[in-house]
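Provenance and format

Records in this collection were gathered into a single text stream. Each protein contributes a sequence line and a token line. The two records reproduced below are adjacent in the stream.
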Amino acid sequence: MISFDEALKLVLKNTTPIGKQKIKLKDSGGYVLAEDIKAKFNIPLFDNSAVDGFGVKVSDIKDASAELPVELDLIGTIRAGDSGKILITPGTTVKILTGAIIPDSVEAVVMKEFCLEASNKILIKKSAMKWGNIRREGEEFCKGKEVVCMGKQITPPVIGLLASLGYSSFYVYKKPKVSIIVTGSELVKPGKKRLPGKIYESNSYSLIACLKELGIENISLFFAKDKKQIITKQVQKAISTSDVIITVGGVSVGDYDFVKEVLYELGIKTYFTTVAIKPAKPNYFGTCIKKNKKKIVFGLPGNPVSSLVSYHQLIKPALLKMMGQINKSSFHVKAQLESDLKKKTNRLEFVRAVAEQKNGSLIVEPTKGQGSHMLGGIAEANCLIHFPRDKDLIHKGQNVEIELISWN
């Protein structure tokens, strides 16, 4: 049995991005950039107005105020998209709308709110500094500057930025193909008639939802009763078609827990089979090479909470790395414990909990139902308390390390 830190280190050490592909801008959401993006031109492209107002010579209005406004002659209007070929001279002004190009002769723009328009005359009621309310060419990005670096997830703001830079396509990291194999003769699909001794299967639904939260859509699902021959057949299918294989159930030491035995016989290189954590002590990780492609194999325990916690702590980091998010890490903070916590030593325990702000402090309260079969607690939780492996008691009022739960 190895520690959680050792297990995670082994998982990430044996996980790499699976390749690159060129993708269109409109389809890129959720992917990760596989190349650095540089500015093809200056941003902004040209000097433009940050407000609706009037372009002026600074010297014309240096003494302007609400009590003593300065009158200027209006000689034209520049809208966004116009060429801006208007020359103002001392004593004149031009109306300029937001985003419109700034002529070379304009030194500042006075906001419309500080001006009074009457026929072809404009009363300016405020002075201005040079370049006031003007967005300068290249003030955000100069041509050739790196704007978005490789490894950045493509979010809606990133898509907008790439579009503004004129990029219609670019290279991203591929998303893995994932197979889920759910084992267990006692399982029944929701909506079907449930006979005595049977339970409704939930793990496949939870795990598929987890994968889709990461933007992974190429998912295959297999079911296998607790029979070695059937499990072997399903694992072989999954390995032949997927980059990542996740088995659920059958990784402990019961009479009908055949998954580890099957994986050994299929030549999967095993790195660990148990991890010193609670929940999810029975936990498998291995790799194999098929047709010159590396396959990653995870074996999760069948208890629903164990399955989800193991996914969140070990599988999700691996998937993110495969998708190019190399430096992605979970968010840990300190919070004040609202009730005593007890456990046996020798395992790091992930305690499902709810953290919230109270009287200016971050507090955390464990949820009810900490059993590995009790989904209610993790459904309510927004964080995991990291109850250290070598401790057996944490008193109310002490600070504890919490990890915010994020499925995406």
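Adjacent record:
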Amino acid sequence: MIDEVPYLMHRIDAFEGMLQRAWDRLLSRKPVLLLLIGSDLSMMEALNSYDRPFHQRGREMVVGPLNPADIGDMLDLDPASAFDAALVTGGLPLVCAEWRPGATLWEFLRESLENPISALLVSAERSLAAEFPPQAMSREVLRAIGTGERTFTNIARAAGGIAHTTLTRATDVLTQKRVVAAELPLSQKPSKERRYRVADPYLRFWLAFLDPHMAEVERMRGDLVLNRIRERWPSWRGRAVEPLVRDSLARLLPDGELPAAPAIGGYWTRSNDVEIDIVGADRGPVAKRLLFLGSVKWLETSPFDSHDLAALHKHRAALTDEPVPLIAVSRSGFSCSGLQGTYGPEELLGAWRGRASTPPG
């Protein structure tokens, strides 16, 4: 078993050729199972590419993080709290292991922030140090995206006004390594309004709330960091949960009159005067047919109401003239009718177990 293979590939010339010769001349004739392990997916996938020594010599297996249902079971959390935990831990087992079963989000954060070497605080820094050297511009760009900048122009400004070519190179590296997702609006017309987001929920949380204030944690003032998280948590969570909601719907559908959607994304305009959280279509990013549109309202006590439905109708009219079905996702229930599908935390969590826990209304 060889761990940190991307590091060896980067540091040792002809590492793959050396390993191939060892396998062909010695190991393949013995009862040996060779496991090559690495966290850099792009480099690990390259091992099996056409022009590399190990092409078609083995099997690839991606070991993903714990999903929201796994997290809820492991930590004894209700469905809504399980999604909160997924956004904070990213499903990383090392971080989840420090969450006491049954503890609330705020209890976990308080305990983690009291310990400067907790997994919540140090795991991201160790991962970034392995992926990107400290002087790499990719880290500055990642920090800009992690603080909430989503457009190319705003990211360049937040990263210190770096040049267009430098930013392009950095975003290419980040997307190739799957650290950052580069997304286009999903609609029936092509668009160049690309937006960027940190793909891993845990890293997104760490960059937004923990990385800028590590000095305070080291001075044992985690209470100040916790207060900032409390203030920003509702608005940050409302956007951060959207990719997880889309993934849940992709697993849940078809459901009743709603079909399975080969592509589920979002829609926005440059000015953000029209922004739709959920767009289901036959393909993406340029669809032939829109299958449904939807809105996400992920607040503690405020249900999805008639005002939210009216806004969704308005945005649908700006996107299409067709009577595309409308759905809504809410953490706190619904107080209006007229939707073709409604989903709460229970239904979404059930999708990760292969079925909805209760039929959606």
